[in-house]
Amino acid sequence: MERVPIILILLLLAQATHPLTGRQIAPVMSADGAGWLDRPEREAEEAPEQALDALGIRAGMVVADVGAGTGYMSLRMARRVGPTGKVYANDLQPEMLQKLHAKSQREKLSNVETVQGTESDPKLPPNTMDLVLLVDVYHEFSQPQAMLDRIRESLKPDGRLVLLEYRKEDPKVPIRPEHKMSVAEVKTEVEAEGYKLDQVIEKLPRQHIIIFRKTSPGA
Ligand SMILES: C[S@@+](CC[C@H](N)C(=O)[O-])C[C@H]1O[C@@H](n2cnc3c(N)ncnc32)[C@H](O)[C@@H]1O
């Protein structure tokens, strides 16, 4: 068997960083963590309905939940957009999507479509979304620039990209540093991919709500 050079092994073990900010990219959450996503304390820690109120999600909207996990936000959005709207629930991991699908069936929510994506492409239809939501996900993207490019293509000209990320600026937020982001980091990384920061909302207990629009509406 051919011997793999030690330097190559070290490079593979080294944690990836974002080329613009040097931010350490967090590993993708394992599907074993699915139970943690549905923990009851999350309601108080993240105030999910307050987050969706702030985003003005209305009946008839078409939205995507990228990195949806077990559907903590997808199902809440599905109830809000109603039968005339639609939620595309995307994730890398089929185990997450299976749990999400089972929950939406139990609740008889027929407006949720699960989509399995790749590390570089969420596989969403182009020019379709009023809003793409990333909740505690962006910091895990192993190829953030490619993901942002594909997400931009999926947005309608006036569509919004929304990131919810634990506040790195606040040392009291009890989350590991690579799972938190500052507004400055998010702005630098996302604006470089054809977006403009529109609004930062600070009304959640632990997370920033950071809203972007496309810089070139036709793109
Ligand atoms: C911390 S969980 C958050 C799940 C969900 N957004 C929530 O708030 O409950 C992160 C999720 O992002 C997914 N993920 C990571 N990188 C991804 C990518 N490039 N495309 C799609 N999903 C991704 C993981 O599989 C995992 O389910």
List keywords for this structure.
219 residues, alpha/beta, Rossmann fold, 30% helix, binds S-adenosylmethionine
Structural features, described:
The structure is a single chain. Helix content is 30%, strand content 24%. Strands 1, 2, 3, 4, 5, 6, 7 and 8 form an 8-stranded mixed beta sheet that branches. The chain has a single domain (49-214), classed as 3-Layer(aba) Sandwich (Rossmann fold), CATH 3.40.50.150. Helix 6 (94-106) links the parallel strand 2 (86-91) and strand 3. The protein starts with 5 loop residues before the first helix and ends in a 5-residue tail after the last strand. The chain is globular. The model has no long low-confidence stretch (mean pLDDT 94). The chain is of the alpha/beta class. The structure holds S-adenosylmethionine (SAM). S-adenosylmethionine is lined by residues 28-29, 37, 66-69, 72-73, 90-93, 96, 117, 119, 122, 135-137, 140-141, 147.
Q: Please write the CATH class name.
A: Alpha Beta
Estimate nothing, just give the exact number of structural domains: 1
Structural class: alpha/beta
Helical run tally: 8
Along the chain, the helix and strand elements come as HHHHEHEHEEHEEHEE
Which overall shape is indicated by the principal axes computed on the Cα atoms? globular
Count of β-strands: 8
By CATH, the architecture is named 3-Layer(aba) Sandwich
The proportion of residues in beta strands is 15-25%
Q: What's the overall average pLDDT, rounded?
A: 94
Specify the helix fraction band. Answer: 25-40%
Which molecules other than protein and nucleic acid are bound?
S-adenosylmethionine
Query: Main sheet?
Result: 8 strands, mixed
CATH fold annotation: Rossmann fold
Kindly report the name of the CATH homologous superfamily.
Answer: Vaccinia Virus protein VP39
Ranges where pLDDT stays below 50 over 5 or more residues in a row are none
